[in-house]
Sequence to fold (465 residues):
Amino acid sequence: MRRTKVAVIDYGFGNIKSVINALHYCNAEAYVVDSPLRISNFGGTILPGVGAFGPAVDFLRLKGFDKAIRDYVNSGKMLYGICLGFQLFFTKGYENGSHEGLGLISGEVKKFEFKDELLKIPHMGWNDVNIGNSSYAKKMFFSIDNKENFYFVHSYYVTPEDFMYVSSTCEYGLKFCSSVAYKNLWGSQFHPEKSGGRGLKILSNFVNEVNK
Amino acid sequence: MLGIRLIPCLDVTNGRVVKGTNFINLKDAGDPVELARQYYLDGADEIVFLDITATHEGRDATIDLVRRVAEKVFIPLTVGGGIRTVEDIRNLLNAGADKVSLNSSAVKDPKIVKKASDKFGIQCMVVAIDAKKVKKNRWNVFIHGGRIDTGIDAVVWSRKVTELGAGEILLTSMDKDGTKDGYDLELLKEVSSSVKIPVVASGGAGKIEHFFQACESGASAILVASLFHYKELSIKGVKNYLKSKSIFVRATD
Fold:
């Protein structure tokens, strides 16, 4: 079988090597893409990312990725955002000031603030997620049990206005949206490329959707 | 529930894993890529590589090691030892490391913590603190593999690195390391209650009970070397034990 080609956007804000390694494990061929013109050649694209919201979205805009990504999603092709890449889907982020996101999903990205001193920030480590009931959630978490653990490391969390996007929730001081899946738009706060076998399964599910 | 992380630590030198007692008398414990892969399959929550000779020798071997491990191991990888510049950090992250751990270089030039954290994010910035008790309720930060007393209070330093943008503290008790007497719980309590970021306990595990004690004393994660390397305890065994004590851990398969 021909290996599925997946683009991994390199905009200087992510451990793209791990994403590429994980895609290879899932029998996909990963292509590093640093120009917005090229993503339209791929049926599936991953927007990785770690770091701060503001500089990341500024850089995406500077390179012209913001429009390219919106056009890409409107064309019906599969997009998966990981961690900061996922947060960038939303309308607005509040990391060191207020920043406009890509606006693919209405909602904000807010900082964890806890009175309980035992709740450390960042939320770092393995936490279990409750998988949603939508048909898209079932595709994303295909053959993964409810309450499985995934690897998180973040100080901000997303708050989608429309619950139909939510494909899983997680609890850390409060219940938050740990992933979205709606039509061709997938994203997760956790790192599927760092979440062992279950994480790799989600990436395989993504690759399978790209093939459809 | 967020689980307590169990983190095997592979001290590497010249491409092999070693673990010292009180930082001297090194013994060979095996091939790092194979060990890392085995720990991943056994249910380790993360893996730490500490390049204990990196201050004196070249770093290319470590970068190559990280690259090879990252191809096979799909859990977070941290690399520490001899990292001095933002460029060193970039090279390790590009090779597939998720976090880097700074020790001596952070003490000598605290600005590097801020610079790297601003650039790559706090999630990848670990500050390792080797602490040794100098009097009642006072631990000093030691650097260069424990050879130099900086005179800096470890608790004060923990707060300082948090402000600079560290995302995690890897706290090693030099008094306990290699003794198997258990973690320095006083030190762990002092540091973890002084900072908002997670603290990884390191140094002194000898019995399974020590893991529970560390959890109860504020550790978000526990670093283990020889006990796992020499198979005195298994990751699964420790996780089952913690679970029986109502401590949440990620299930192993």
Observations:
- Chain B touches chain A at residues 1-5, 40, 45, 67, 70-71, 74-76, 93-98, 118-124, 167-168, 193, 196-198, 218, 220-221, 250-251, 253 (CB under 8 Å).
- Residues 8 and 50 of chain B are 11 Å apart (CA to CA).
- Chain B is about 35% helix and 30% strand.
- Chain B has one domain: 5-244.
